[in-house]
Amino acid sequence: MTDYALTLSDVWRPPGLASVSLALLPGEVIGVAGPARAGKTTLLKVAAGLLTPQRGTVWACGAAGYAPEAPVFPPAVTVREVLAYYARFHARGARQRALVHDALEVAGLSPAADARVAALGRSDLQRLGLAQATLGGSRILLLDETLSGLDPLARRDLCGRVAHLAATGIAVLLAARDLGALERVAGRVVVLRAGRIVRAGSLAALLAERVLEVFLDSPPPEPPPGFRVTATGVEAPLAGRTPESALALCRAHRLAVRASRVRVKSLEEIVLDAHDSSR
Questions:
Q1: Positive or negative CA dihedral for 57, 63, 64, 67?
Q2: Given this model, what pLDDT does residue 137 score?
Q3: Could you tell me the pTM of the whole model?
């Protein structure tokens, strides 16, 4: 167990979680995906110790920093003052000032250090949430939608900063609606639905899954086994079979095949398919 930065074993916390188990390695980024009310925020709060599970265990090796989905700070104070307030729980004097300086640098907030919170846009508020989560040498970061709802430039920059933190050995558990952000930084992805993990795997393996799209001249009266009807014809995953055998099945069902192509699944499709198949 000591090889892991964070482990959750058979954690129950109704109504948000139902028997969730996962293990996070130092330097690893695990993305947590799923629809609204899937349990993403509950999972992070349990991991952070903000919620107590009714069953199961949570074990963390090192300090954990938590950044909520919508961080709220006093509007009249400056960014530097916010971080100084949190830093005082870890150090005093010169060391406290050094922690603030490092947090500003990590989150890319140095140019806005003396700006008041009320003047910050969403991306800078998310940066401030990330900065306070890293204070005190956190070895585990629990980030709830920190990379979501940002413009492309801000998202790219923050993704790079999270990836850099992971490269230093910090373990990151990242919940995100923005699946593009997860594709940028996550090494593994878990998909939640109704408080359960319904799909999990390395990002590379998940994004290697292939689908055969078959374009038809007319809608099929009934799709072949394993296929589903689409706006242009039918399609099916190619798990354990070749495109040729899948096409032969279409022809055996007397479908008028006009064209076909093989494509890889997007992370969005994987999340949606996991959600639909678990119903």
A1: positive
A2: 87
A3: 0.88
